[in-house]
Amino acid sequence: MPDRAPAQCSLAGLKLGHYRIVEKIGAGGGGEVYRAHDEHLDREVAIKILPPGTLPDQVARKRFRKEALSLSKLDHPNIATIHDFDSEGTTDFLVMEYIAGETLSEKLSGTLPEKEIAELGVQMAEALAAAHAVGVTHCDLKPDNIRLTTEGRLKILDFGLARMTRVIADTTTESTAVTHGVAGTLPYMAPEQLRGEDVDARTDIYGAGMVLYEIATGRRPFQSDVSATLVDQILHAPPPPPGRFRTDLSTRLEEIIFKCLEKDPEDRYESARQLRVDLGRVLSPHVTPEAAVRPRRRSSRWKFYAAAGFLVLLAALTWWSLPGRKAVPAAVQTSVAVLPFQNLGSDKESDYLRLALPDEVATLLSYAPDLIIRPFTATQMYATGPIEPQRAGRELRVAKIVTGHFAREGPRIRVTLEAIDAGSNRLLWHDTLTFQSDDHVNLEDQMVTRVRQGLVLALARSALSTPPATHPRNEEAYELYLRSIAIPHDGNDNKQGIAMLERSIGLDTAYAPAWAEAGQRYLYDSQYSDGGPPARRRAQVATERALSLDPNLLAAARLMIALRTEAGELDDAYNLAEQLVEKRPESGEAHFGLSYVLRYAGRLEEAGRECDTAMRLDPANAQFRSCAITFELLRRDDRARECARLDAGSNFSSWQTVFVLLAERKIQEAMPILTGLRNNYVQAGLILAYLHHDSPEQIRRLSERSEQINVNLADPEQAYVDARVQSFCQQPGAALRQLRRAVEKNYCSYPGLETDPLLENVRKTPEFQEVRQSAAACSKKFAAAHGLQ
Prior knowledge:
The chain is built from 33 helices and 15 strands. The strands form three sheets. It has a six-stranded antiparallel sheet. Strands 10, 11, 12, 13, 14 and 15 form a six-stranded mixed sheet that branches. A three-stranded antiparallel sheet has the order 7-8-9.
């Protein structure tokens, strides 16, 4: 490298150490800025080459390196990270995070909407608060030092650089102290900087006020081209009111800007956190136009509209208070899908985090009362490649998408979380956290904090109703839990997940999500593998333990309702479902849980209404596919098809479509679907054998096999389903035995017995009438116990 100031020559293609210069991207009093490629770590960086003479000797360089090291520890999503400081010959350069996008000054071709001003101000204040908390001030805030990423995230550049150069210069020679003693850019300098007084966090508050003023009005408050006059204005003249230049600014935002620009630091905000709180209030939906915006002439009709609104509200409250009416919020909740994260690094050992991290985020968000969270099982289809948020939003029918990525950086893993508006593809929120790769407990602590304090507010402007009651306490246990989440729930994979969770629970017996995940896997093992009744009992124990540790864990509450229902404990299941609906009336999953109990209890009309409510609140939740059974038993076949399509492409969806077609006598349409299912359902093979007029012996063998499989299942609804198949296939003995088993285990859906077309072959037998009477008695007993008409 030539031993001269590099700003005097073209540097493209040349190297500074292991950094290869690509192109010049900026310049200013702080030095030339270049985009470069870090050949050691294979990444893009920004290099700021300091002006010649900034660091006149090795003492200054050593001190500057120490200051740079201190600044490199600033880790905040709104602060551009400093990676390195080095020298090549007499050329001193600082290596920083490269940020694609535009500076705030480039964006200021016109003024910005107030909401966007406040949002940018909040990000700026959060960055300042983080830096001030570790004793670092910027001292040169201006639009040129603030960059907006291509995703819309604000990043403050050159953090602490102005003060660093001043401090370094002050420790060299007397002449440079005079030259560099005042750090900053004149039009944006605070009065105390001009007076040569000590600066602190309140100096940055002034700088933030200058930035807010300029993005609100499109101009600086002090405009003189004469330096002496400009200094006088900064020291003595009040800034013109921003409202003079645009009348649509709220008085609240104007007051915030004035408070930042007070001449005396004592009169400004004491901290950036206070500034962030006030800016957050500008964004608050609870601020009325009358309170927030300067007065305007209002129409005399406002009284009429106010009175009409009051009457509508009164009517709604009256309707909600009618006996037996559950209060379901009229407002549509915010629907959110958390997509699998991307592993941007080469470390495949961390791949399990692609599913584990978003599953954790989805669980945390489920505690927010006005968010509808798609079950993470419904979003795992996007785990195979790059994700286009708008497409995922359309397919999942959600308003907001949460996604993220992570990469291992030496011993640490950096995780980035993002919230995106699915309609506009606009970035709503962005945050980054880092943790040691062997410290997952710290990761969970950070996730809880970031979700509670940032993500939930970005999605719904509300707080978590109740935070998680338990937190991991053992590193190995928590890592096992995270790794188990990424394992499929089928066959031997599910058993591997169970083994991991059993080890996790043995190491940390008090972490509720691990118990809930174990309960779900035990249930799958009992239903779809060879776990049988012992696995179901373990599912019950694990779920009870999860709820004892965290009664508000939605996944565990939902699972417990299903377990109690399928065990025939309808009274307990109904009480749990009612309590969950009372606690979470906005939750589609809560209403679905209630519909599930009501279906087993033979209350099909009520079950249908709860299914309708669940799908109104959460219209794309694939778990609600089971409502297809309810609507089919009600002979609402079109609605049954809609519910089955919630999980389109699944065996369940195809199987339910078969039942609807058979009930409608559309045999030819059902045949190809049955052919595709015969390897997964013995009953599909039985139906095909019957329709193909196979030998009576073949049909009998398939009938016996189907009956035996379902005898070993704990869920009585499976016995009822098998009874329908057996009846359709002219196997009345097996059909009646299965119906009796179903009712004896408290599957009391007698209205279905009355109307189900597939039961026509057994409906006129005396045995059927006995079963029907037992089912009716079971349903009436349930209704009486719970005051149902």
